[in-house]
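Hey, weird one. I pasted the Phospholipase_D-nuclease N-terminal sequence into the form twice and got a warning about non-standard characters only the second time. First submission, copied straight from the form history:
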Amino acid sequence: MVRRWSDLTEAQRRTFVAMGVVQVVFAGAAWTDLALRPREFVRGRKAWWALAILVNFAGPLAYFRWGRRT
């Protein structure tokens, strides 16, 4: 079932926009951390993590959970 923006309720629109903002902020934080973190403190290749972060929510979450070394 294809829905149009105009078919959504106000609450659904707000939720959709809020989730988009959260995704952008989460990915931005992950990319910033990845860019500033020295290579020896990242598990695996930085280029692969940069691509993985593109995956909605799961990519940044995976990077923060498994990609960083302390």
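That's the output from the first submission. The warning seems to come from a hidden character in my clipboard, not from the data itself. The longest helix spans residues 10-36.
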